[in-house]
């Protein structure tokens, strides 16, 4: 299984009044992780958008395990959990510096044409990208 990693230095602005990372920032970090995974695989999401496609999140889950705080470094681990004709599920772990899990999650994404927001198979937009996702998906469909 291919896993991408991205380190994020936690900024003061990402914390709440208790000094704990505000929960919505984990969603942003998951997006950063997803972008890093795509980059690590040699693809470019911006080019896909230039071709008229976008990839909205249809569903997401996050399980918070252990608080993170300002000054720490979070590691976002991202992989393709599953991939089929129209949907990709990404898996995430957000880790403390000692390797303990701060949060886990998934996002379910699809590819749509920007002009009409109708689902569009990744294999038709970018066959190489689709093939790579099928190759590295944790669970085969």
Automatic annotation (TrEMBL):
Keywords: Hydrolase. Pfam families: 4HBT_2 (PF13279). Coiled coil: none annotated. It comes from the Bacteria. GO terms for molecular function: fatty acyl-CoA hydrolase activity. InterPro entries: 4-hydroxybenzoyl-CoA_TE, HotDog_dom_sf, YbgC/YbaW. CDD domains: 4HBT. Belongs to the 4-hydroxybenzoyl-CoA thioesterase family. NCBIfam families: YbgC/FadM family acyl-CoA thioesterase. This is Acyl-CoA thioesterase. It comes from Lysinibacillus composti. The lineage of its organism: Bacteria, Bacillati, Bacillota, Bacilli, Bacillales.
